[in-house]
Write a structure and sequence with these properties.
The chain is elongated, with a radius of gyration of 31 Å. Strand 15 and strand 16 form a beta hairpin. The protein is built from 17 helices and 17 strands. By secondary structure, the protein is an alpha+beta fold. The chain starts with a helix and ends with a helix.
Length: 652
Amino acid sequence: MKTLTTLLFLLVSLSGFSQIYNPVKWELKAERFAPDSALITVNADIDKGWHIYSQVQNKSEGPVPTTFEFEHNSAYKLVGQTEEPTPITKKEPAFNNAEVSFFEGKTTFNQKIALQTSDSLQITMKTTFMACSDEMCLPPDTREFTVTVDKGPEFVAAAPVAGSFEPEGGDLGIWAIFFAGFAGGLLALLTPCVFPMLPLTVSFFTKQSKTRAKGIRNALIYAVSIIVIYVTLGLTISLSLGPDALNSLASNGIMNLAFFIIFVVFALSFFGAFEITLPSKWLNASDKAADKGGLIGIFFMAFTLSLVSFSCTGPIIGSLLVQAAVNGNVIGPAIGMLGFAIALALPFALFAAFPGWLNSLPKSGGWLNSVKVILGFIELAFALKFLSAVDLAYHWGILTREVFIALWIVIFSLLGFYLLGKIRLPHDSEQKKTSIQGLVGSILVFGLVVYMVPGMWGAPLKLISGFPPPSFYNEGWSLQNAPTAGTNNSDQTTDVAKIADNEFHCPFGLNCFHDYEKGMAYAQKVNKPVILDFTGWSCVNCRKMEDNVWSDKNVLSLLRNDYVLISLYVDDKTTLPEKEQYVSEITNRKVKTIGNKWSDFQTTHFRANAQPFYVLLDLNGKMLAKPKGYNTSIEGYIDFLNKGLKNFEKGS
């Protein structure tokens, strides 16, 4: 690179040019947009026919990139990278046809500053750049500027316009819950408590009924009874808790710790440490009712199956209900139980209609217990998700992304060895040879283990997105970086912006805010629309959106260059200062934490309490498009962002 720059310089000198070229005029401005935050604006006025280069280039082949170096000063800290507009990209013959990115005409760069003082201060910056035209390139030049940040006024951001909206993509979660329940029902069929009941129950109906049609009818009534029993259980949970309570389960520290313990207990039960059973009185009472015959008798036969199989189905049902409940949808548990019950009941109806199929079923044996053990490993892996939710919400920094992934690698490695027959538990039968099914299963499991290994060093791991903590919650996280409420604490001096901003923890290094007023004030300074990202530390779907949608280069470019991102965590447990606490007009509950504040903000202004929830706003708080919920369509998200930009430009 030095050789190429020297050659270009000699070419300019030897060509006989005596004129001094100054194709780029620089101007530096500074504005305080909040008591402890400022914006440094660097304007470059580039002469026609000339251009300067982007901050990111192929340094081995391309030109010298533009750089900005700020003088070290304890009175301020840089927040994020220096922002630049979307550059022009093309292949340039002068650099061996390397693809370069550059700017022409008037170009503006922005750098956010976290201030440690409320007084005015001077900031010194150096910029190094290389200017080229179609005919020549000038040697790299360095300019130094000093700008003063004045003591600014207090800022009041425009409040968003309140309204009631149904976000796009809102129905996807219901279907996900249903299919999760259906999958759970299929797994329950393969447990030793349920599988042997299939031929026994179907044979009973076919033998006790005088005609085949009556046997099929009784089996159908039996199947419908199973569905009614489990859906009633789901509805009872839904109606007793309500939507607000269901939504709060996802972020409640005590509940998440309880769920962690419950899942560990379920796992130990599946491993054979003990059995989870219901009181024998319930079973005896159900048996007596089943002996009465008729429709009531058939119903109680189904009820007896539910009670007898509880030691196997209980952990599956419990896991499903927890996942459905923390989803925050009022009918989630009922929908989950509907899927579970249909999957559980369908085989009884089908085998009654076609009894010959019973001959094709595999015989009961040790493989049924293996299914339980496999489920135990899965339950143990899921348990870590709930412990992680607590760790994230309270910013303990214990179960970081690397630790979480390491534990998953260990759990699934043990599962792989179990499938190969290298690990045996007390209730397992002796296995002399590895089965074909075990070999195939172990290949898949060890494949997942190998896939997860790069995640220890920052790989995205889209396949399991939403389960590990976000990428920025890594070993570099410390309590010093953790949020602290309040914006005017003069005693707090950290190496990052004060948490009213929280700029340091943003996906993919995006320059974002975690305070609505500061984010809106910044948007007004840079004249960009706002994307409100209502999210949560324990929100699985939020991580899935970030890992699978925001990671797309086009989406990432729009978020980085065209919007001001304000991510509001509704489950942040950081306590608000006493003077900032209040009673919500919507819920009549005390708002005590940062999470409470943003949750109430979302409910008050947008009549929604589910996450993720994305809202596009102009500088006056007016919506630019219909809010969007969880939907992993990249094209749909790009259309959503482009529609907001189009409407913003119309209103400008």
